[in-house]
Amino acid sequence: MAQDLFSLTQIRHLMRVEFSRAQRYSYPLGGLVIRVDGIEKVRVGHGFEAADDVVAQVTDMLVARTRACDHLGRLVDDRLVAVLPHTDSSGAQALGARLVQAAHELEVTVAGQKLPVTVSVGSTCFEDSNTLFFDALVDAADAAFEQAVAAGGDRVVHVSPAEVA
């Protein structure tokens, strides 16, 4: 549910805190950026409320498939973010792949019509001191997300912070 999500301001603060902890204590920190593919078409064809319902169902799916220690938030443009403490690259990518698959299993009905749901997921990870800056981690997650969308969506793409530095 939407109440399970941190606001943009809150999630950015938590991301900075977790990044500082990961640097200090040398543990990996995974991150995902998730968005429903074609949400703009739902909004245009069925209205804002229908689009919000679809995002809410994807949010519920995300909450159900993440740990209590993970931080979930909503960014601008209907993007969701997951901050994953103690999660390495392979773990972040695996969760992203599970989310892509779980979206296929959602049964979303809008105006009596069943809509297929797919998501694009950008994955990144701070590990082995691959970046010194929080912003590089955010940029990597955004770059991975954009690559997933550009490749047609319905997939997870991983980008290391070192690749965008």
Automatic annotation (TrEMBL):
Keywords: Nucleotidyltransferase, Transferase. Residues 27-161 form the GGDEF domain. InterPro entries: Diguanylate_Cyclase, GGDEF_dom, Nucleotide_cyclase, Rev_trsase/Diguanyl_cyclase. It is an enzyme of class 2 (transferase). GO terms for molecular function: diguanylate cyclase activity. Its EC number is 2.7.7.65. GO terms for cellular component: plasma membrane. PROSITE patterns: GGDEF (PS50887). GO terms for biological process: cell adhesion involved in single-species biofilm formation; negative regulation of bacterial-type flagellum-dependent cell motility. It catalyses: 2 GTP = 3',3'-c-di-GMP + 2 diphosphate. The keyword Iron does not apply. Pfam families: GGDEF. Transmembrane segments: none annotated. This is diguanylate cyclase. It comes from Engelhardtia mirabilis. The lineage of its organism: Bacteria, Pseudomonadati, Planctomycetota, Planctomycetia, Planctomycetia incertae sedis.
